[in-house]
## 1
Amino acid sequence: MTVPIYKLEQDEFMKDGQFKVYNFEGNYPDRSELLIPHRKDHYLVVLIRTGGRRQWIDMNAIELKKNTVYFTNPQQVIVKEELTQLWSTGIAFTKEFLSLYGNEALLKLPLIVNPYNGYELEMTTEDIIVVEELLQKINVEYRQRGEWQQRMLCAYLTVLLTYLSRRYTEQYTGNDLSSEQILLKRFQAKIDEFYQQYHEVNDYASMLNISAGHLSDVVKGQSGKPAIKHIHDRLIMESRRLLFHTDQPLKDISFQLGFSDTSYFNRFFKRETGLTPATYRDQARAMYQ
């Protein structure tokens, strides 16, 4: 499947498509991005004020946490899965914007280079105060069109990225991947490749040439959730995508995802989400009518 690349769209405040501020106050995800694996042609830094929504970055399922900063770069694949409201502020910017006014050094900041392939920064109470103040200044400047707008935004963004890069080095430096972390990533990669055919931990343990018990212990220790839950999460994400974006009958979806019959797929989906597939499809589509 070809992964679409979404460009940074212009708005009334910035006409060059190089910088944009997103303020979500109980908003739902845009229909064009919901359950669609995609890349962006820009960097994104987001402060999440309310958690609970599940999202995927490079096919790793994460639960967005309250008062946490998330960041992505143009190489990472993103999937927005959950149909829940979001309170957050996001700053989107291109490589070209970072290079304005001789600021090419920003491209070498740890948060931008992201050598550890991270996506999450835990914030202390003091961090939140600093980040909120900078986001407020950026929001004010963003709405003041004029010859100084870009310079001021670049100045505030420089401070924000520098501050977050310090937190990045504190959180990630020295975190070279252990053998257990490498095994978790290999397991997740195998799930993404074979989830439609194989639904059991034993299958993936065989592919990785280890025992199911060892795989389960390592995955639970490294991710905090059972190995089988990783498989189920991937199946649910694809189920939701097919239910929302296609008109395929439930029988065809269940067959495509490797379920022996539709009734088993119905029970699995309801157990994992609390809704039947048909109810989820109706409710999700009703929200965008």
## 2
Amino acid sequence: MLIAEHSRQPIAIALSEEVTSLKPLGVDIGDQQIVLWRDGDGVAHALEDRCPHRRAPLSLGCVRQDGHLQCGYHGWSFDGTGQIIDIPQIRQQAKLPAIYSAQAFPTIERDGFVFVGDAAQAAPQVNAGDTPDLPLHGTAYSPVDQARLMALLLDGPQLLIALPGIHISEYPLADPQWLDGMIVYERACRRSSGLLGGRWLNDHWRAEFPFALRFMIHPRTGFCRLVLRDGDNEAVMEAALSLVEARRGTTAIRWRARHRTKTGRRPPLSITGSPDGNAMRILPRDVSTILHEPAMAHDLPAVALTA
């Protein structure tokens, strides 16, 4: 998967905390390698992770004090647009050839993720100083390719996601639906043996499955919103996941989440990067059949970045 193939869709390729002005960050979308960093104003930028001089990875370089990205091989430096701004071997009065500029990608930062893609070009930047809406976060890498993980998220999310104290059932509450280019469906959930906090333990359970886990999935970009609601239809946990195809058929899974009913830093979910192969093998293809409906054959609207 290359950025050019999904240019209308912003793809969440990094957590905000991963992108700093101290050191460049190398990420990838399929075989497309990208370098991210922040300039002196804290704004995130993305270039192809390859110096146009000798093709050395720019992610092995450094961020200069002026916020420009410097290649670690021969010291060539670039600004956030990819423009070459300094070649140490050329005297300062000389005009730098524009042909040596690096390929740049538009970025937007929102909800604690850094998105890359042409659809981000007209969107406003959000500085890193803004408090993320979902403060808890993590990253996992899976040897399973993105397409199969997307199907797994639909057919058997309990093999990929674990919620402390909550059992995600294999039963959807209703058929999945398309809504604004996203697949929306819910899973019935019940309390398991884990602890969820005093208020939850003292609840009187009015049904066998008093919780509902709502999924809002954008299949083309792998961006997903999760909301866990209790029997009173109150949100008790919210999360966002980004499943991005990486090199060699692997998948990068980045997530953010927050508790609604408890305090503390205990993560409200965990991601299993290597789901049980046998459980995947016998899992019925149920909800994921929606991926093959005609809606997927057309260009989808840009993913909504808010729930």
## 3
Amino acid sequence: MRSRRLTRQRNARLTAVSVAAAATCAALLTGCALTGPGPGGSGPVATSSPTPTPSTSTPATTPTPTVKPTSTGSTASTSPTPTADSRKAVYLGGNYSNGVFSVGVIPYGGSTNPALTGTFLIHEGSTLIGQVNVAYDPTDGYYGGHFNLTLAPGRHTFTYDYSGDASYQPAHDTGKIDVTNVTITASVPGGTVVWGQPITVDIQVSPIPGVTGIPTGKVTNDSSFAFDTAEATLDATGHATLTVPPSPYLTSGTTRQDNYPIYINYAGDDTFTPWRVMVLFTFLPAPTS
């Protein structure tokens, strides 16, 4: 009897514990099941994990990617505007005669106040052939300088460079100087021409001794009141015959015999220099009708 009473009491206590545990489980968890007591029973066991409470923190903001502009081509950098040179501009010149090379610096407008200074360089090709300190030359009446130089016969091209100074701008220029390398032999056959008739001039252009080659190009004559201008081309030997017509302005003839000059010009070519000679002949009076 006493044993059954103890068993009922134990069961009642376990039932009360189970009811309390069920209430607690309902308040905290869902899906919670109870395992009743049995021989060796162990009380309430959770059969699933509790649903986690969602976080209330604000998620991190994803940065918006920066879109680079599409290149439409290179843009030239802006260079500073150069300051205008307020110094006076000049032009340059050179001359060669009798083994002396002369150079000059002449301001535009002609005024040389203040006086010019600076350095003048002369090159032929890449070779520096002369350098002078610019100064006033009372003999020539200009600013420049001189130096001795022996140039071979032929055509020469030089570059001139003036350094400039505090009052005058730098300058660069080129110049050509010819040292004669040809000779011209010319004559009027028979030496006489009847007034009002064409003039025939026999011309031979030859290199001077020590120079090789054959001149090419054209020969002409200067016109006058008595005859017009003509032109002829040198042949493979440097020879030409120039036939000069009478002047279209000629209206009357001479009544007496006159000695008369005609000037023959050789134009030169890439190797040989221009040259000029005078030919004398005699005009005869035109026949009278």
## 4
Amino acid sequence: MTRALGVDVGGTAARWVLLDGDREVARGAAPGATGHPSAAARARLAESLRLIRGALPAAPDAAGFGITGAGIPPDPALTPILAELLGLPETALWIANDIVLAWHGAFPQGGPGHLISSGTGSVGVAITAKGPVVVGGRGTLIDDAGSGAWLALRALDLVLRDVDEGRAETPLHHAFAARIGSLERGAVTAAIYGGERGEVARLAPAVAEAAAAGDARARDLLTRAGEELARLVRALDACAGPAPVALIGGALALHPAIGAAFDAALPGHTITRPGIDAAATAARRALTLTQTRTP
């Protein structure tokens, strides 16, 4: 049997699984990292991989990676780095961006298919015979509509306008004040600019809480989030042709209004919400790689 390591590298955690053929041997997690090209990012990635290698009960024969920030196609400079860290030949590695890995998890038999992911950010991807087609996903400053960070920022904009104009407080005000500590200028500035985009996205539950308390504007924002994610599907339809749709991501769990609006905006589409084991998918991609190269 061939032992294959699969690693799903995200900003908060790097989750891994070791397979021996179809049998799972071990599973774990290490600190998160990215595929960004900065020296600091490469150092974090190296440390995460060293910890994973140290936790393995047996050395892998091949490895598959889905790495956030790796690029589409992935940065070729990552290949020799990962090969050296794991002591594997470069030909034994399968490397992709994390959203491409997720696509393979959602469509294990291959396409056509459109994957929409909404978590901290949002992005849509289809993989065609010509390669990946990507829409959205350019970051929270200019894009990522329908994501957790987008929801938090859009809602906080409404709240702060109300504060500036002396309007009456609403459940949306109360929910953000509870999560931030207050709506004072310094507290809000620290919450938004004092950390990574993931910190901003962690404010998104305030929108769902306000909607549950009857805040109409919060409910409207949740509906808009679903509609923005549906827009990514229509963009993929235009670029790659109509296809079945898979919707994934942690932001969907915020409130059922997001998924309901998504479905309502896409009549005639086949939509699923698959559960994806990204690390196992990466390991299986590595196994497929070795099998196709076996004489």
